[in-house]
């Protein structure tokens, strides 16, 4: 008769413990696309902009195009510098949109501490459809007075606005 070596009992299989994860750090900036409407500097969350191109003048014949200055009632100030007209391609849940805006069009990381949501009363009474918040930044020569109007693309096209 052969002696078999003694074997230690094997511990039951356990699932590995996932490593402790810390919550994601809060965002310190919001990527926005900045452009001009009359004398105003305006921003839109960058993830809503699919593309940008120079306006050539015949866009309406090929594809509907919304003149954002006209829609928001922000007429061109006679003293405002003439800017290039640009077309922004906007991501929208129903269908792609094209807005005509003033240049320059730039991508900017806006620090979150500069963004101020509109108070409810002001948001309910504003004449600017789609105005969601204001950003107060340092004055940059040629870029307005440091005030940026932040828009919500969905509200601009909402028929109730």
Amount of helix: 10-25%
Low-pLDDT sequence parts: none
Order of helical and strand elements: EEEHEHEEEHEEH
**In DSSP terms, counting alpha (H) and pi (I) runs of 4 or more, how many helices?**
4
Give a concise summary.
With 161 residues, the protein is mainly beta. The chain has helices at residues 59-62, 68-72, 120-125, 153-156, and strands at residues 29-37, 40-45, 49-54, 66-67, 85-90, 97-111, 115-117, 131-136, 147-151. It contains 4 helices and 9 strands, in the order βββαβαβββαββα.
What can you see in these coordinates?
The chain has 161 residues and is mostly beta strands. The protein contains four helices and nine strands, in the order βββαβαβββαββα. Strands 1, 2, 3, 4, 5, 6, 7, 8 and 9 form a nine-stranded mixed beta sheet that branches. The chain is globular. The termini are far apart.
């Amino acid at each position: 008769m052969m002696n078999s070596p003694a074997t230690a009992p094997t511990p039951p299989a356990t699932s590995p413990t996932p490593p402790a994860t810390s919550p994601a750090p809060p965002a310190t900036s919001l990527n926005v696309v900045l452009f001009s409407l009359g004398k105003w500097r305006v921003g839109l969350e960058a993830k809503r902009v699919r593309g940008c191109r120079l306006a050539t003048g015949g866009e309406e014949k090929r594809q509907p195009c919304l003149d954002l200055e006209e829609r928001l009632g922000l007429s061109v100030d006679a003293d405002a510098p003439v800017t290039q007209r640009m077309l922004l391609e906007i991501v929208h849940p129903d269908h792609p949109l094209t807005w005509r805006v003033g240049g320059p069009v730039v991508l900017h990381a806006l620090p979150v501490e500069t963004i101020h949501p509109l108070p409810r009363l002001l948001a309910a009474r504003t004449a600017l459809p789609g105005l969601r918040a204001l950003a107060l930044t340092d004055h940059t020569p040629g870029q307005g007075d440091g005030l940026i109007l932040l828009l919500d693309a969905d509200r601009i096209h909402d028929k109730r606005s």
